[in-house]
Amino acid sequence: AETEETVTCLHLTFYHPGQGEKMMFRCLDFCRRQQLRADDTAKFGRDSSLCRYSLVDTRVSRIQFSLQFYRRLHSSEYAFEIKNLSKKTKLTVNQTELGYLNKIDLPWKCIICFGEYQILAEIQEGEAVDYFETHLHLAEAPILQERCLPSLQPVPENGISPSFPPGQGKSPTEIDENEL
Question: Coiled-coil intervals in this record (predicted)?
Answer without folding.
Answer: none
